[in-house]
Specification:
Shape of chain A: elongated
Number of strands of chain A: 4
Structural class of chain B: mainly alpha
Radius of gyration of chain B: 22 Å
Helix content of chain A: 10-25%
Helix content of chain B: over 70%
Largest sheet of chain B: none
Number of helices of chain A: 3
Number of helices of chain B: 18
Strand content of chain B: under 5%
Oligomer: heterodimer
Order of helices and strands of chain A: EHHEEEH
Structural class of chain A: alpha+beta
Distance between the termini of chain B: 41 Å
Strand order of the largest sheet of chain A: 1-2-3
Chain lengths: 72, 465
């Protein structure tokens, strides 16, 4: 069971929403669409589950971004 | 506008404002560029001037000496237009994260190719040799990208969707708001029938063939709603696997490119009017750029191919109403519904989507707003003009130059389709996804044809007149 207040994919270290990366890892996407369009919203690639997921999703494998783990 | 992750993260690093959204999505840039040009055009028109000097376009020609003469006379205008596009698209490309130098180099070559193609389409023997510019652009691009290849740095300037969205915003100036209000509901009804049936056929066939429900949904929306954009939107909403998205992309692109050639060919053989053919293409093509290539090709037959009635613009107008108003606008609703179904009814993947009603707006193809605003602006300007005065004054001074700019934008897109399509990039899709998607294609094409040529025949015919 995942708590509803679990931080979402948007700030997870496994989540990659970079449009350039998405277009390079999904060949053919930019032929008749684009990773820069509104319909994509802020979806990204999850390196943990190898899925294409919405930024607002949640999962038990959430990890803080590497930068957030550095001491201040 | 909604900030992303508003419920999921308090981290300011991942919170994005409405203004950030407005500069990092190409939909908004298509609006800024398209509406910006229209505002300037309207302002000049209101002061008794026009943008037609810079919105230069080739004229009909018979001999190469005519081309040389046109280039000699209007060379400065073509150069000025090139600089204008470079500035507008270049600023947008920079904001989207592309290297400006790469974009400018790539776009320069694209502009030269588009100029050659524009001229080719106006050769008085072009229709005799079936040299329709969209098809020539596509074929030429496919040949280059799959033989000699296109260097990686050129990717920055080959942005099909960006050019097509900008063109669609400009296209709004050719469609009065009253026409959209009159034809929009019919387009929505026809598109809804076809979308629901096509999605159902693909989804149920895929499930029957033992495919995963998420792949079935991604394939279904690709075929039923808005092609690759539909697939990518729903893939995120349901949390599809990466390879499932790639399979859907390959199948949609493959069939969309086939249909660019097949739909105009069959419609021509059947002698469909431009309005009816445009509606059919709008119902049965999968992507905006592919469909506009097919519709513009068919519009080019009007007045050149015996038996094809209706005006040239009707094919593109009917297509746009059907595809943009009837199908594209609803992708957010499809994504929301399928995300709820995936979360509540399908097997868990370990990732839970918490999409709410805001999903509809977040995924809304914003360039449609620009299209509607463009239509409203020209409708407002045209108020108070009689039809004769509109034809005599508003069309040459305002609408025609904007139509020329639209044609430029579409030509950039058509060339980019072929130049970015590399067959080796297509993934191996497997037999079952192919059968499921193809079943949907067959139903989609037949049903779209029946609705366009039978049930709503009179309506789409009138649009063409």
């Amino acid at each position: 069971m995942i708590a509803f207040d679990t931080p979402g994919c948007a700030r997870c270290r496994f989540f990659d929403p970079d449009a350039r990366v998405i277009e390079s890892e999904l060949p053919g996407l930019r032929i008749l669409s684009s990773a820069y369009g509104s319909v994509r919203s802020d979806d990204g690639l999850c390196r943990q589950h190898q899925r294409y997921v919405a930024a607002s999703s949640i999962c038990a494998a959430y990890r803080e971004p590497a930068a957030a783990l550095q001491p201040a | 506008m909604t900030e992303i992750a508003e419920r999921s993260s308090p981290n300011p690093a991942v919170r994005r404002s409405a203004w950030a959204e407005a500069i990092r999505k190409e939909d908004w840039w298509a609006i800024w560029i398209g509406l910006g040009l229209i505002v300037v055009a309207v302002a000049l028109f209101a002061s008794g001037q026009s943008i037609k000097w810079i919105a230069v376009a080739p004229q009909k020609w018979s001999h190469l000496s005519d081309v040389a003469a046109q280039l000699s006379t209007h060379g400065v205008q073509y150069l000025a237009l090139f600089v204008l596009w470079c500035v507008l698209f270049g600023i947008a490309a920079g904001a989207l994260g592309f290297q400006s130098l790469r974009f400018l180099l790539s776009f320069s070559l694209l502009y030269v190719a588009a100029l050659a193609l524009y001229f080719l389409g106006l050769w008085d023997q072009a229709s005799h040799y079936n040299l329709e510019p969209p098809l020539v652009a596509l074929a030429l691009g496919l040949l280059i990208s799959n033989t000699v290849g296109v260097p990686k740095w050129a990717d920055a300037g080959l942005r099909v969707e960006f050019y097509i969205k900008t063109g669609i915003v400009l296209l709004g100036t050719s469609l009065p708001l009253t026409l959209i209000a009159w034809a929009g509901p019919v387009a929505i009804v026809q598109a809804a029938i076809v979308s629901l049936v096509t999605f159902g056929v693909i989804y149920l066939t895929a499930i029957r063939l033992g495919l995963d429900r998420r792949l079935a949904a991604v394939l279904g929306t690709g075929g039923a709603v808005c092609g690759v954009s539909g697939s990518i939107a729903v893939a995120g909403a349901v949390g599809a696997r990466k390879e499932q998205v790639s399979v859907a992309i390959s199948l949609v692109v493959l069939w969309a490119i086939v249909m660019i050639f097949v739909l105009p060919l069959v419609a021509r053989a059947l002698g469909l009017s431009t309005g009816v053919a445009g509606a059919w293409i709008g119902t049965s093509e999968f992507a905006d750029a592919a469909g506009l290539a097919a519709a513009q090709t068919y519009g080019g037959y009007a007045g050149h191919v015996p038996g094809i009635t209706g005006n040239a613009d009707a094919a593109v107008s009917a297509f746009t109403l059907m595809k943009v108003i009837g199908r594209d606008m609803w992708i957010g609703v499809w994504a929301l519904v399928l995300s709820i179904v995936a979360t509540t009814r399908w097997e868990s993947t370990g990732v839970h989507n918490r999409a709410g009603i805001g999903e509809i707006w977040r995924r809304f193809p914003k360039f449609v707003l620009g299209f509607l605003l463009a239509s409203a602006m020209v409708t407002w300007v045209a108020q108070g003009y009689s039809y004769a005065a509109y034809k005599q004054s508003v069309v040459p001074g305002l609408v025609a130059p904007l139509q020329a700019l639209r044609t430029w934008a579409f030509t950039f897109a058509f060339l980019s389709i072929g130049l970015t399509t590399r067959v080796r990039d297509f993934v191996s899709v497997g037999a079952r996804p192919f059968y499921a998607f193809t079943a949907g294609v067959v139903v989609n094409v037949v049903l779209g044809f029946v609705l366009s040529t039978q049930l709503f025949y009179g309506f789409w015919t009138r649009l063409g007149q």
